Amino acid sequence: MEKKKRSLKVPHTYVLLFAMVVICALMTWLIPAGSYDRVIDEATGKEVVDAASFHFTGDGGIGFFDVMKQFIAGMESSSDIIFLIFILGGSFMILQDTGALTAGVHSMARKFGKRQNLILLLFMFLFSVLGGTIGMAEEVIVFIPLLVTLCNELKLDRMVALAVVMVGARIGFTSGLINPFTVGVAQGLADLPLYSGLGYRLIWYGLILVVTGWYIIRYVNKIKKDPTLSIMHGVELEGGEEVSDENADTTLNARRIIVIVGFFITIALMVFGVFQWGWYMEEIATVFLILGIASGLISGMGPNKVAQSFVRGTKDMVFAALVVGVAKAILLTLQDGGIIDSVVYYASGALDGLPKVVAANGMYVFQLLMNFLIPSGSGQAAATMPIMAPLADTLDITRQTAVLAFHYGDGFTNLIAPTLGSLMAAVAVSKVPFEKYLKWVMPLCLIWIVFGLASVTIATLIGYGPF
């Protein structure tokens, strides 16, 4: 029996990712390499494909040595996220050692008591609004350590923290309310009024929000009744063990209150900087580095203790940081193999001439799969919408429906796509093993995909337009 159990053990995260890289390398030998020419779209100023320019290049097939080089290249190209993870790990360890976060979360948990499910749902709703309006994705990573602390206080596992933050943000991002990076770009490329058709998207946003809230709270209630049902039960944390805060000093003194206020000021500054000054990973990492050092000194830790805490925190994030680089190797293998444009070309040809309901859902399924190859929302729009928008015209499908199929397809598989750096970073920072996360999230992802099929079908039948 023991041997059987060992044989059924899920592979380590790195083994799973390495296997995906190998599969992608094999695909570069099976699918002919091809390319579209890129031109600048006058309406949006973005570089997009020229739909009539596809040609086979004949340079396909990635060899063994080049495949292994992709892991190094993945680390280099993901350096901004990797260093953000290290800085967050070090800074949050300093914050943890000040006792301010633990004291603040303890006070919140004590105040809300039995209404913890409501608090979790409110956090999820807040992140969904941020995802649906300002397109917050990578930025939510900074909230995960805070929610992990809260969930520890509520006797819940890290999966709940990850779900509330990351899945919550994906609800809004995927539903495409007024997301500038998906709906905004796609509608511009399809010559549609910006953010038109919002009413229809709001209906499906509400449905997805409700079913996701139910899914998370159902899991919360299950593990509260029986902790052994937790997805994290018996899991040895990569990069450091869980530290118990049961005997910690949770007094909210003046210094800790100043640190907590500083934390929320930093969050507000980050959000403002991202959308007013164009901040990205480097600037976000900088403000959290300042927050960590300042918090340690304000709390009276002293320079040496601050440095020791920071190093300890970064050590805990080695596994998390490396996962992002290893996952990026999957995407680089596909890009270097030159098969991404070929997949777009073959898929568009297969959709041409199909009945419009079948074709619309074919567009949706195509975008679901393309999201693994082009995880960037705006990048996927630039690569596919110049082809899908005119194709929709020939199939008697509204361009609004084509955009709907795009942003659902781009968003739903963001829950499971290992090529998406922000997903891998969020999972890694939460210290939830990727294979465990997949087990938890896959049923929810399938529910979302079914909702997408229903939404695209109805949109096709009613001639979804700008209302």
TrEMBL record:
Subcellular locations according to the entry: Cell membrane
Matches recorded under InterPro entries: C4_dicarb_anaerob_car-like (IPR018385), DASS-Related_Transporters (IPR051679)
Alphabetically ordered keywords of this record: Cell membrane, Membrane, Transmembrane, Transmembrane helix
Pfam (any one): DcuC
Topology term for the membrane: Multi-pass membrane protein
Keyword Membrane: yes
Membrane-crossing segments per the record: 12-31, 81-106, 118-148, 160-178, 198-217, 257-278, 284-304, 316-334, 354-374, 440-464
Highest taxon in the source lineage: Bacteria
One cellular-component annotation, GO: plasma membrane
Protein name: Putative basic amino acid antiporter YfcC
Originating organism: Emergencia timonensis
